[in-house]
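Retro notes (design track)

What went well: tokenization of the new backbones is finally stable.
What didn't: we kept losing track of which sequence belonged to which structure.
Fix going forward: every design gets posted as structure first, then sequence, in one message. First example under the new rule, 277 residues:
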């Protein structure tokens, strides 16, 4: 015969509270779960990550096909969904890739060493204090880059601009008359937003890569906006139920893979004349 203990005497299993960080604004929450909404920036619980002894990003030296960068401040929102679609294509095509949501990493502003003297901007970058040096190595090791950004006031996100600014040390190799490390690599771009600025944002992003010798894949830009007549909290449902989003984003990713198969980087090696500024 079994005896059931009174409710007040039953052992309780309680896990200790954890610390959670909002990857958007840096707010710290203590509890068993992240809050449903960040009290500082209103981001959803999907933007929180548990704080632990996270090691500084390092590159393992292995070459791969596509560096996939989610440049949105909100890693798990609309732009993140479009990056998910890109991942589906890369997996289906058997294309090796590495995805990074840059709001999870420490990337400082560019120090603008070039403004001191031409050769002060060098590769490897003088700033080895943050995690950008690992991204520098992956830019060089990969055959293509696909960049995703939300629209922030008719432009890319501030985080993404910091990331792209920090590529100056690679681009400056041409100006120092040293061999370039990114000639003939492929770039694709996808942009999500609520209203205006998609094309401008995409072209602003492309300009960085054009100055590094990258080739934009044919139909290599995809974008989708919803419209200012709608509340922004309806954007996610719209994007996830719009077949145009799927067709455009997956089509762009497919075009990048097709360009990779042409092996332009090797075919153009030592044949291009850098004319960047």
């Amino acid at each position: 015969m079994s005896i059931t203990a009174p409710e007040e005497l039953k052992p309780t299993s309680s896990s200790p509270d954890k610390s959670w960080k909002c990857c958007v604004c840096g707010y710290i929450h203590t509890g068993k779960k992240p809050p449903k909404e960040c009290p500082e920036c209103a981001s959803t619980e999907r933007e929180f990550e548990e704080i632990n002894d996270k090691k500084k990003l390092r590159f393992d030296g292995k070459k791969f096909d596509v560096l996939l960068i989610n440049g949105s401040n909100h890693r798990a929102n609309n732009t993140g969904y479009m990056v998910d679609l890109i991942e589906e294509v890369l997996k289906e095509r058997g294309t090796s890739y590495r995805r990074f949501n840059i709001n999870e990493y420490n990337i400082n502003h560019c120090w603008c060493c070039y403004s001191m003297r031409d050769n002060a901007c060098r590769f490897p970058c003088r700033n080895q204090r943050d995690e950008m040096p690992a991204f520098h190595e992956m830019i060089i090791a990969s055959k293509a880059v696909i960049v995703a950004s939300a629209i922030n006031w008719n432009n890319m996100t501030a985080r993404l601009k910091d990331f792209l600014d920090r590529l100056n040390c690679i681009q400056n190799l041409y100006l120092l008359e040293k061999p370039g490390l990114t000639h003939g690599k492929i770039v694709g771009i996808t942009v999500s937003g609520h209203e205006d600025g998609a094309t401008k944002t995409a072209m602003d992003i492309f300009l960085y890569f054009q100055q590094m010798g990258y080739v934009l894949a044919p139909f290599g830009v995809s974008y989708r906006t919803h419209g200012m007549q709608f509340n922004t909290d309806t954007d996610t449902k719209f994007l996830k139920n719009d077949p145009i989003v799927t067709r455009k984003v997956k089509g762009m990713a497919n075009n990048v893979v097709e360009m990779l198969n042409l092996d332009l980087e090797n075919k153009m090696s030592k044949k291009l004349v850098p004319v960047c500024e």
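Added context from the reviewer: The helical segments are 78-92, 132-141, 158-165, 168-175, 198-210, 235-240, 243-260, 264-267.
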